Amino acid sequence: MPLKITVIGTGYLGATHAAAMAELGFEVLGLDIVPEKVEMLGRGEMPLYEPGLEELLRQHVAGLPGSSGRLRFTTSWEEAGAFGDVHFVCVNTPQKHGEYACDMSYVDSAVESLAPHLTRPTLVVGKSTVPVGSAARLAKRLAELAPAGEEAELAWNPEFLREGFAVQDTLRPDRLVVGVASERAESLLREVYAAPLAEGTPWVVTDYPTAELVKTAANSFLATKISFINAMAEICEAADGDVVKLAEAIGYDERIGKKFLRAGVGFGGGCLPKDLRAFMARAGELGADQALTFLREIDSINMRRRGHMVELAREAVGGGFLGKRVAVLGATFKPDSDDVRDSPALNVAGQIHLQGGQVTVYDPKGMENARRVFPTLGYAPTALDAVRGADVVLHLTEWREFRELDPATLGEVVTHRRILDGRNALDPELWRKAGWTYRALGRPRA
Ligand code: UDX
């Protein structure tokens, strides 16, 4: 009998994992505690934007014309407990309000709600990013609460997907990391991730704490790379150097590599910023806070980028925002996503608005979420409408649509042809040729 799989939580991670498991041929039941989400997904509609995901979902959701019928959704823990041989926990672990630590309440309650319905041998697999030590604690809790006792086992299998590339990262991962406490757990996971997914994919089999740490270490390293290049951008600005050339040149050294060296307004999103902070908080609890004090600096370099962008915008409009129109291109934390969590773009827009600027935002996919988070900002239906009458244009999320804008057309509707490129993604020559004053973070002025 092929394994049956449940996926708990249907956010970016869970929805993608559920659809990917169905694509691999498993019968899958997705669970979410929000009935509206379950209803939407059951109709083959995505509550969020992720390239290619809705199409994949529609190929498998039961009841849709031409679908494999292998994927269903529910709000019932009882149904999930009875259905699954392997249960993936994909709920989020946001930053606690006013603290560095992450909020484990969704993970804890997922395990506590599911466990009483586990009456036969099963494997619960944590995928969420958690503080080291959580898996050991949850394994104990699971065995206490499940009627199956120790036969309800836990494994930790961190997920490394990037938003915007979630489907391909899930179906073709660059590595699989599993933290297990038994051979049975490992062999069940090998069955789940059998070919074609795992063909040629490196496996790292380890214990719980190492598996948990791999994720936070990877995210900390990526954040460090970004803040490193952003620190170099600060130096380049002070010394009239060019951080884009600098990044290209150091990137030719294979030990450094070219990726994740794009200087700009810094990192945001639901992962990197909060994972860094939760990692520092956990290190403190473990008495190892000194090991991670550098992450505090990584975080503050990152946050400084946003303030710096606001300063450059203020300077561009003559020293104060009152009565000035500021167009903001981009609201999401990165392109090809509708996610505005901890978005540098929206943060910069918000700061300028609070300082009296008349801000108009346009984003290809993030408008609905941005409006919900920041309803008092101005929003426009197109990039051209957003820049109409602008004293300065800020490019803060590097959507392809913005790279393809025609500077001459935009130039006809703005009040002043000034653009600040917060992502170093536009072609300076193109804009300057069309009569714009183009300025970018970490690059010479002219
Ligand atoms: C990240 C990790 O990459 C992924 O492995 C993990 O599973 C979740 O967290 P994600 O948050 O989707 O993924 O986005 P990522 O592509 O890592 O970008 C994060 C932020 O860094 C974005 O705001 C992006 O704009 C910024 N960034 C990225 C830079 O500023 N410069 C770069 O060179 C790269």
TrEMBL record:
Pathway: Nucleotide-sugar biosynthesis; UDP-alpha-D-glucuronate biosynthesis; UDP-alpha-D-glucuronate from UDP-alpha-D-glucose: step 1/1. Gene3D superfamilies: Cytochrome c1, transmembrane anchor, C-terminal (1.20.5.100), NAD(P)-binding Rossmann-like Domain (3.40.50.720). The keyword Ribosomal protein does not apply. It is an enzyme of class 1 (oxidoreductase). It catalyses: UDP-alpha-D-glucose + 2 NAD(+) + H2O = UDP-alpha-D-glucuronate + 2 NADH + 3 H(+). InterPro entries: 6-PGluconate_DH-like_C_sf, NAD(P)-bd_dom_sf, UDP-Glc/GDP-Man, UDP-Glc/GDP-Man_DH_C, UDP-Glc/GDP-Man_DH_C_sf, UDP-Glc/GDP-Man_DH_dimer, UDP-Glc/GDP-Man_DH_N, UDPglc_DH_bac. The keyword Secreted does not apply. Keywords: NAD, Oxidoreductase. Residues 327-428 form the UDP-glucose/GDP-mannose dehydrogenase C-terminal domain. It comes from the Bacteria. Its EC number is 1.1.1.22. Pfam families: UDPG_MGDP_dh (PF00984), UDPG_MGDP_dh_C (PF03720), UDPG_MGDP_dh_N (PF03721). PANTHER family: UDP-GLUCOSE 6-DEHYDROGENASE TUAD. Belongs to the UDP-glucose/GDP-mannose dehydrogenase family. This is UDP-glucose 6-dehydrogenase. It comes from Streptomyces olivaceiscleroticus.
